[in-house]
């Protein structure tokens, strides 16, 4: 089992594996933007649209991180934005789908597909943390963006649409999202520091 795990970790930066991950994340990002097409069309004024497609934007950023790894480069600020948002919105999507189901929303195949794909977003962000070169200042940049995004999402009502059963708990979801942002920032930075110390020892 240890040998298999070591092989898997070593494969994360192999060219064949990176290409596979780039294709999966790239196609998922395209699908995600298509998913948000109607909400983007309805969002006004237009400058707010950058804050709407949270998950596909996060997965697009992560795709760019993978491309940078493929060509032997690291971009710390991009890693920070991609890792934090990819993890945050991966967890967020799974959580709101489960919460909606617990309140009576009927799940279909798309819900399960979304939970699987978004769960994968969260996991990949953590798996690749051992390779990130980001520093605290990069995390602080992301903190400013994500908390601004949360503020606009839940004061201007431009967050991803919720199940009807969950919409009545709009404020609770908003505060939980802020908490998830803070947790995501802490987790990514803590993991990077852990792996950095491990490499030095």
UniProtKB/TrEMBL annotation:
Domain of life: Bacteria
Pfam name, any one: DUF1405
Transmembrane spans: 16-38, 58-75, 87-103, 172-192
Keywords associated with the record: Membrane, Transmembrane, Transmembrane helix
Coiled coil regions, renumbered to chain: none
InterPro entries for this protein: DUF1405
Database matches in PANTHER family: DUF1405 DOMAIN-CONTAINING PROTEIN, HYPOTHETICAL MEMBRANE SPANNING PROTEIN
Protein name in UniProt: DUF1405 domain-containing protein
């Amino acid at each position: 089992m240890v040998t298999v795990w070591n092989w898997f970790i070593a494969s994360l930066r192999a060219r064949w594996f990176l290409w596979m991950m780039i294709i999966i994340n790239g196609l998922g990002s395209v699908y995600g933007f298509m998913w948000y097409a109607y909400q983007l069309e309805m969002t006004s004024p237009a400058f707010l649209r950058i804050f709407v497609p949270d998950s596909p934007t996060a997965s697009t950023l992560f795709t760019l991180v993978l491309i940078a790894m493929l060509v032997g480069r690291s971009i710390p600020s991009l890693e920070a934005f991609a890792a934090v948002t990819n993890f945050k919105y991966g967890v967020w999507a799974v959580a709101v789908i489960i919460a909606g189901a617990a309140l009576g929303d009927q799940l279909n195949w798309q819900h399960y597909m979304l939970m699987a794909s978004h769960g994968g977003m969260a996991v990949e962000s953590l798996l690749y943390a051992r390779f990130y070169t980001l520093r605290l200042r990069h995390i602080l940049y992301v903190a400013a963006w994500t908390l601004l995004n949360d503020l606009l999402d839940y004061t201007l009502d431009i967050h991803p649409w919720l199940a009807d059963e969950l919409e009545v708990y709009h404020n609770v979801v908003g505060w939980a999202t802020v908490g998830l942002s803070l947790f995501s920032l802490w987790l990514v930075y803590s993991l990077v520091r852990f792996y950095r110390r491990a490499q030095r020892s």
